[in-house]
Amino acid sequence: MDSDRVFAIGVVGTRNPREVYKQLQNIRIRTNYTSEISYKSKDKRRLLCALRWMDWFFGGQEEVGVKILLKDKLLSNFETGYFKDNQFKAKDSSVAYCESYREVLKNFTPFKMDKKYFYYHQKSLNTLNVPSYLGGKIIGLGEEDCYSTSTQKKHKDGSFRGPSQLVQFADLMTSTYRGLYESLHQVEPINKEEPPNQKDWSKNILQLNLMYHLTDLRAKTLSRQNIYHPVYNRQIYEIWFWQKNA
Question: Is 246 contained in some domain?
């Protein structure tokens, strides 16, 4: 993340995880795709399954919500000293991820007062102790309720475990929007060999599908307006722009 201009994290929330696992797995079976769903994957076979995941999410379901926090570091970078709880003396990127998770979990409107269990990917957090950082600072979440997982954990039959499915889904939704933001704001790629606006066609399709479901997404992204879908008090999809110098 240190070299990336755009920072984004996403959290998936649900009160019925088993039903969400079931729906995601059913779509895998129907699209005949059993590998990891990743926005960055070069395997274009993932596209149909990824699109159907997104279609299911925006198709009227009320089981799961997604909240994304995005910061464009061209406007203001992270300063480690801002974070009062940086008792671990961690570098900017690790603290930014952890503090961002805390901000999202504290203000995830549909689940704000719920008892919580938090599954997270340790990648990008280095050795930062996430349970110690988050536990007791968010309503309904203790240290014992935070679990490190990955996108690749599977059952003996080869199917992905539920938390791994949700982490993959969070990555898909977050990375697709981040990619859209970078495209609309003409963010130069880190890989200088890749032309600025020449992306993998499958990523273009995912971004177009996101805009298909949210017709005002382009305009709000260009003006960096927070997004609440379908409406604030019944939101299943929220994008919040971190503007302050933090």
Answer: no
